[in-house]
Predict the structure of Adenosylcobinamide-GDP ribazoletransferase.
Amino acid sequence: MKVLIQDFLLMLQFFTRLPINLNLTCEKENFKRGTMFFPLIGLTTGFIQWITYFLAIKVLPDSTTALFVLLIGILVTGALHIDGLGDVFDGFFAFKGKDKIIEIMKDSRIGTYSCIAIIMDLAFRYNSYINLINKEFSLGIIAAPVVARTIFVLLFYMGKQAKKVGTGNLFIGNVSKKELVVSCLLGAVITGLLLGLTKALVITAAAVIATLLFNKYCEGKIGGLTGDTLGANNEFVEVITLILAYSIKL
């Protein structure tokens, strides 16, 4: 049990900016076991955003509350996945071949496509938060990161490594059926409790389809997945979940 708790904390250290100042073991096996807790990483992020909404909406207008929810999400994650989204758009729209695409994705500078992608991502999120607040489907704020982090594990399981060396390789191809099943069951339970079974099933199906298509697209462009493409998929799935959470009437 102690090892599992440490692996969960390791994932929190890795994927959030929460102040967990512990010296934890960082072997490949720790990252493998840690993937089982990805839905809980999403739950932690989403819950912090939801608490922000719950407190802010009492004294602030909907639009300002939505901005704070958006900002808190960025601060908690350190914009890790948004950065990946921007890098992917810069690289994939370069039309230069696999090696050049990966080189562009590694560049710390951002280009036009990256700027557009990030702006649109934030705009969709902001609009979705306002709609969730107005329609009183606020638990979608929590559900979005839960679904996205659960889908991460599916990508780890079925994806191929596009690079020989990279942060994403700590996870890509480093997941067995055990971790996949545990994370999916955990994610399904949490999402079902938040959104209701029917809506959760529809959203999960949409997220899986989008992820399968994106994975296939990545294989065609660069031969597999990198940390940046993982981050981009996270943003796609979160936005899809947010939109469907308020637009589906069940």
